[in-house]
Design a protein that fits this description.
It is a single chain. The chain has 155 residues and is of the alpha+beta class. The chain has a domain of 102 residues. The chain is built from three helices and eight strands; from the N terminus they run βββαβββαββα. The strands form two sheets. A six-stranded antiparallel sheet has the order 3-7-8-5-4-6. The chain has a two-stranded antiparallel ribbon with strand order 1-2. The protein is elongated.
Length: 155
């Protein structure tokens, strides 16, 4: 059987002419692309989850990232089409016995949430809080950003 070189493994001609940075140990390093600047602080943990008929949010990773446990007392309120959830020792609401976040019916109705709807759940560690955004709210938040990104006008 004849041996053959695999193109992806064998460097192309002119490879030696490229300029590489050299680290402290004299080894060549591959240049890294620059990352786009961020607009500000980003929530460290976010998840897209669904809401069931009783208001339970299907993802627990965001709540866990804040160190919240089953039975944790909470303040829950609707704010501009989204839901603000904050840890409060005197809160009226609490996490379920399995540490799920359950949105009260009044809040779900105020935000237009129905069973099966998807939401973006974002931790705000500095405030010991969680923001729950409905898809229509996210769409409204993204309109201007997408218009700039795609070079068009806002709707």
């Amino acid at each position: 059987m004849a041996e053959r070189a695999i193109a992806a493994v064998v460097p192309r001609a002119g490879h030696a002419d490229r300029q590489y940075a050299v680290d402290d140990h004299g080894l060549r390093t591959v240049p890294l692309p620059e990352l786009a600047p961020t607009a500000g602080p980003v929530a460290p943990v976010c998840a897209v989850a669904s809401v069931d008929a009783r208001g339970r949010v299907s993802d627990r990773s965001v709540v866990r990232s804040l160190g919240w446990r089953a039975g944790q007392r909470l303040e829950i309120r609707a704010v501009g089409g989204s839901v603000l959830v904050a840890r409060r020792d005197d809160g009226v609401f609490s996490l379920t016995t399995q540490a799920y976040l359950r949105l009260p019916a009044t809040v779900r109705h105020w935000c237009g949430l129905s069973s099966g709807d998807r939401v973006l759940v974002a931790a705000e560690p500095a405030r010991d809080a969680v923001a729950v955004h409905t898809m229509p709210t996210l769409q409204a938040l993204l309109v201007d950003s997408h218009a700039r990104m795609f070079g068009g006008e806002t709707a």
